Amino acid sequence: MTGPVIRAEGLRKSYGDFAAVDGIDFEVAPGESFGLLGPNGAGKSTTMRMIGGTLDRSGGTLEVLGMDPAEHGPEVRAHLGVIPQQDNLDEELRVRDNLVMYGRYFGLPRSYLLPKAEELLAFAQLEAKATAKVGDLSGGMKRRLTIARGLVNGPRILLLDEPTTGLDPQARHVLWDRLFRLKEAGTTLVVTTHFMDEAEQLCDRLIVVDRGRIMAEGSPQQLIREHSTREVVEVRFGSDRNAQVVAQLDGVGERNEVLPDRILIYTHDGEGALEEISRRGLHPVTSLVRRSSLEDVFLRLTGRSLID
Amino acid sequence: MTEPQTRAAEVDTNRLAYSGTAPSHAEMAARARRFGVWYYAETVLRGMRAYFWPILGYAVGQPLLYMVAMGVGLGALVSQGAGAVDGVDYLTFVAPALLVSTVVMSVSGEMTYPVMAGFKWQRLYYAPVATAVEPGQVALGHLTAVVIRFLVQSFVFWLVMLAFGAAPSGWSWLVIPVGVLSATAFGAPLQAYAATIEDEGFQFAFIQRFVVMPMFLFAGTFFPLSVMPGYLQWIGWISPVWHGTQLARLASYGADVSATMVAVHLAFLVALTVLGMALAVRVYTRRLRK
After folding, report:
1. Could you list the residue ranges that cross the membrane (chain A) (predicted)?
2. CB A60, CB A8: distance < 8 Å
3. Which domain holds residue B204?
């Protein structure tokens, strides 16, 4: 298939007067890694559930592999691997049995599932845990098992809702590595996240979502280029002085952003900006020059941080 | 990670993505549409396997206890006083009723707290409904697994009845389907009700005390319903236990039940079952697609 694997037009979901998803349009190409970046409550999970046909939409059109998921739920979901935000593994079953029983929901025969389960255990680096109880696994292991489970039907599209929320940094990197391999093997990934580093790691292209609407769309680099400067200088003068000092920083960079604990100065030349600050006789407690990230894009677009 | 391991993992990934031995995705969806109920029942049965010995012990121990207490203990007393009840000795009279009562009591456990585990405590229902299986199939699959459990439990009870010589009719094996039908007549509507509960399920204790126990005590289990005062007989009439018990007595020792009443009992049990299933499908679909 050369057309998009997912196509949404004017997609809406409302609960009473509240619009959780308020008319969004996007397309996902086959093999692409597509992200929905936004804070909690932006409508990301709602969108994911509509794609899987596990939540009816209130308006707009939606096609997944040319089918309407609200009409052809089982047919659409046979192509999907769904990794929910909250692990829902069967704690009464052992690790391997979780994979096998899940595969049965797709009508897969045991003769296929038993070797497949071994393959998936290897992929999730859980071979040693095959007969362990799910309750005894660490958070990262459970997450990898949930992802392995989502692969049992050989999905063309993997829907990952906040794949690494709640994991420690090392577990996150292991997981990203696994997901990257899937992408290399041609699986389309759709990822929701409120972590900018995750979006930068995993996504070829993303939409920034806030309050059910799309604020911007593009590759991480493109978004940073369009909505931010190359570098950012972070200076701290102490939380009570930041607001006073900011007036004296006018013109140092292209623009300033005052956060409760620090001031961000957006500029193309971070070192130059730091020199200018000290030439004006200002001496921040700490200072740091870094590259712009998606966090800055989000701040610019919404005036708020991704993580409150 | 060392270099060779990395390569091995890459090969695996390619197999993962292009595994050619699986049925097509369209075939997966078609199978799930046809057999989804059974696929979910398999999961529930698999979970029960962990409790195989307790379940079997309960299935054997409970009828044994009842038969000894009611037959040997209470039965001896009743036989001394009244002689025969309904034309048979007390144990024969009470045994089919105990079978029906115990499965109905067991179903009140199976279709309450495990339903809460599915929706809330362990969210077990949310995994299958993200696959090719639909919420209504999850509802019916859960019920199917419970029916299979009660087939086994009723069968064991029937064997115990045979061992005590308390099932004289050649048709006595029919107490098994009667027991299961009584269980679904109460269990399916209860499952639908349990699925509507959003909080911690405190209501279930109330159901145990004020619905299940009266059904057990006032539904003609230990004495014919006709000896109760008229103003209490309605409890029997609305209780699946009484309808099931009458059918089980007919099967077990050929109790005097008219053809019309057989039809009434069957219709009542089937109607409750079907109504409960329809409601459960509806409630599950609403809640899991919310």
Report:
1. none
2. yes
3. 27-288
Domain positions in chain A are: 6-224, 229-291
Residue B184 has pLDDT above 90, yes or no: yes
Q: Which amino acid is at B264?
A: V
CATH classification (class only), A229-291: alpha beta
CA distance B7 to B69: 69
- Mean pLDDT on B252-263: 92
Does A37 touch chain B if contact means CB atoms closer than 8 Å? Answer: no
Residue A1 tokens read as: 């298939």
Whether this model's ipTM surpasses 0.90 comes out as no
Beta-strand runs (E) in chain A? 6-15, 18-28, 33-37, 59-64, 80-83, 157-161, 188-193, 205-210, 213-218, 231-236, 255-258, 263-267, 286-291
In this predicted structure, the answer to whether residue B17 has a pLDDT above a threshold of 70 is no
Domain presence at residue B16: no
Please tell me the total count of domains within chain B: 1
| Nearest CB partner across the interface for A107, out of B18, B32, B126 | B32
Mutate to test the interface with B, among A45, A105, A145 (most CBs of B within 10 A): A105
Tens of pLDDT along B234-253? 888 889 999 999 999 999 99
Model confidence over A247-297: pLDDT tens digits? 888 888 888 888 888 899 999 998 999 898 889 888 888 999 999 888 888
Q: How far is B29 from chain A (nearest CA, A)?
A: 5
Domains A6-224 and A229-291 share a fold: no
Residue of A45, A97, A106, A183 to mutate, interface with B, max B Cβ within 10 Å: A106
The domain A6-224 belongs to what CATH superfamily? P-loop containing nucleotide triphosphate hydrolases (3.40.50.300)
Token pair for B205 = 């204790």
Smallest Cβ–Cβ distance between B132 and the set A86, A106, A123 belongs to A106
Q: Is residue B159 part of a domain?
A: yes
In the prediction, which pLDDT does A307 show? 57
Q: List chain B residues with CB under 8 Å of A186.
A: 17-18
Contact at CB, A181 and B9, closer than 8 angstroms:
yes
Q: How far is CA A263 from CA A39, A276, A279, A285, A300, in A?
A: 21, 15, 18, 12, 14
| Residue B8 included in any domain | no
- In a domain, residue B13? The reply is no
Q: State percent of chain A over pLDDT 70.
A: 98
